[in-house]
Amino acid sequence: MNEERYILFDQYLEGELAVEEKNDFEKQLTEDAQFASEFETFKSVQLQLQNKFGFEEEREAFKENLNQIAEEYFNKKPKVIGLKPWYFAAAASVAVLFGLFFFNYNQYPAFADYNHPEQASFAERGSEDGPLKNAEKEFNAKRYSLAIPHFEAVLAKGKTPEIQFYYGVSLLEESHYLKAEAVFDELKTGNSVYKEKATWYLALSKLKQRDYEGCKKILQGISEDYEDYDEVQLLLDELD
Amino acid sequence: MEKIKIHHDQMYIDGLAANDSVIIESIYKKFVPKVVFFVLNNSGDRDQAQDIVQEVMILLYNQAKAGTLKLTCPFDAYFFLLCKRKWLNEFKKISNKGVTIHEDVVSINESALELIAQTEEFDEKQQLFDTMFQKLGDKCQELLKLSFSVKSMEEVAEKLNVTYGYVRKKKSLCIGQLTQWIQEAKNFNSLKK
């Protein structure tokens, strides 16, 4: 460590150098890039120390206050104790009124309207009670959360676009968007028969997340040769 | 110098810096639900959402206190994107899988992105600094802590029961040690790039 250099930095910042030394120092700053860069770091370390310890108490107070507000927000104790039953009736009727009021104005298409995954049938290739058979059973019974681990077991042994696709659909049904979209994206960039289907489901994922713009963009990328293009067109029209 | 136009949402930043409960509560009410929704929809739970929000709030507090946070865009977009990116980073760490993330930054304007880059840089610098500070010996840590919370170095010397000359020198050297480590980390990073 260049001890003298750091002592000099400190003296300069404290204004303790004689005129001549100060001039030398400033000259070196303009001529020696390494020196200047180190001086900059030294100054920024000082600044950070200032920030760290200059108002530590205030920061602690802030954190405590923040914590309290956050707890209240996230783990709200139900405040319904003491509310009279007729309050609920009133609240319910207001809710119904609002519901009726907005019902006709809800112009956005819903995921549920387009969500009808086809039945899977990988049976002939799976042994009687293997993970593949189980995955198919759970998937067709719409027990997606149970199907997912079976799919994962199958995929761990070897990937096929077909299994990947049904796995992606299960993930989407369970709202694991990030994972589902990763699966569909992989299929979309591939060349299997599931390419367009995966793109369609990618759009549905956006729809389910109410990202209508994103949904539209993806739909526009689907080729008109896609077997279920009618649905694509329908959804596009609804989004417009 | 270019004149920067401060967005009127700066009041949220100032409110955080002033530890103003009304402002903090209004941030939770207005802007946090969107973050929670996002985290829940991306393999996270409520606790994780709460942590992310708190981390970002403390980050903003620190940056505001350092006087380097001037909001030039709506708070909404800025705050949401910061939380979102923090969560995605966190998620990558815990899931440890190469999940591809597709970011739609279409609706975000440039000043928001620039501001986010600044805040993230502030965050990185602070984390680097904290790591290095923890590497220092106990003596250095204590001396620096005192030097930057007590008014004068004379007082620091008195508290530590050493001479003024000694604390001054020691302080320079402790800061010097940090400087050296951080400088090395910087050089290393620029090599990586």
Automatic annotation (TrEMBL), chain A:
Annotated source species: Flavobacterium resistens
Gene3D superfamilies linked: Tetratricopeptide repeat domain
Residues that span the membrane, as ranges: 86-105
Name of the protein this chain belongs to: Tetratricopeptide repeat protein
Keywords, in A-Z order: Membrane, Transmembrane, Transmembrane helix
InterPro entries hit by this protein: TPR-like_helical_dom_sf
UniProtKB/TrEMBL annotation, chain B:
One biological process term in Gene Ontology: DNA-templated transcription initiation
Family: Belongs to the sigma-70 factor family. ECF subfamily.
The organism of origin for this protein: Flavobacterium resistens
Keyword Protein biosynthesis annotated: no
Keywords, in A-Z order: Sigma factor, Transcription, Transcription regulation
N-terminal signal peptide: none
Gene3D superfamilies (UniProt xref): 1.10.1740.10, Winged helix-like DNA-binding domain superfamily/Winged helix DNA-binding domain
Name the UniProt record assigns to this protein: RNA polymerase sigma factor, sigma-70 family
Keyword Transcription appears in the UniProt entry: yes
Molecular functions (GO terms): sigma factor activity
